[in-house]
Specification:
- This protein folds into two domains: 9-63, no CATH class; 66-145.
- The radius of gyration is 16 Å and the shape is globular.
- Strand 1 and strand 2 (33-37) form a beta hairpin.
- It has helices at 11-19, 43-49, 90-100, 129-142, and strands at residues 26-30, 33-37, 60-62, 67-75, 107-110, 117-128.
- Helix content is 27%, strand content 25%.
- The chain contains four helices and six strands.
- A three-stranded antiparallel beta sheet has the order 2-1-3, with no helix packed on it. The protein has a three-stranded antiparallel beta sheet with strand order 4-6-5.
- The chain has 151 residues and is of the alpha+beta class.
Length: 151
C-alpha cells in the first residue's frame, strides 16, 4: 500500500481504519519491544501501521471483542501450503474457498520480517466473533483446508 494520507486511502483502507471497534486491546512493537495496550487504537496509529503515513509501518496486533466487523487470516511463509512461495496457484485454493464463503475482497499485508501474508476481509455489519470464527473454520474444513495449515 502506498504512503498516502488516510483521506487519500482506498475505500477499503478507509473502512479498515473505521472498522476497529474497541476490543480486548492491541499489541504494538516499538524498538523491538512488544507492549499491550487496552482500548481502541487511534486513526493516526492505525494509519501508521497500515503504511498510510510517511513513517515506516511496524508491528500491530488487534483482537476483536465479542463482535467483529472483519475476518483475518494469517498465511505463514514457513509452514502454510497456501503461501505463494509454494507455487503460483498455492494461495488460489485458499482464495477460492474464501470466495465461496462470500469473502471476495481483502486487504493484503505481507510481513517484511517473516514473509507471511495477512488477509483482512471486511464484513458489512458486526457479527459475533466466536460465531464468525467457528463458521470460517467449518467452511475451510469442508473444503479440505485445515485451519492449522494457514501457519
Amino acid at each position: 500500500m502506498s504512503n498516502t494520507s488516510p483521506s487519500k486511502a482506498s475505500p477499503l483502507a478507509e473502512w479498515f481504519i473505521k472498522a476497529f471497534t474497541p476490543g480486548w486491546g492491541y499489541v504494538i512493537e516499538v524498538n523491538g519491544v512488544k507492549a499491550f495496550r487496552s482500548g481502541h487504537p487511534s486513526t493516526k496509529m492505525l494509519s501508521h501501521h497500515l503504511g498510510l503515513s510517511k513513517e515506516e509501518p511496524s508491528y500491530l496486533a488487534i483482537r476483536p471483542s465479542r463482535n467483529t466487523q472483519w475476518i483475518a487470516f494469517d498465511i505463514d511463509q514457513a509452514r502454510s501450503p497456501y503461501h505463494p512461495d509454494r507455487g503460483d496457484d498455492a494461495i488460489n485454493i485458499f482464495l477460492e474457498r474464501c470466495a465461496l464463503m462470500g469473502l471476495r475482497e481483502s486487504l493484503v499485508f505481507r510481513s517484511s520480517h517473516s514473509g507471511g501474508i495477512h488477509l483482512w476481509y471486511p464484513l458489512a455489519k458486526p457479527v459475533k466473533a466466536f460465531d464468525a470464527a467457528l463458521t470460517v473454520k467449518l467452511c475451510l474444513e469442508a473444503g479440505a483446508i485445515d485451519a492449522g495449515e494457514l501457519g
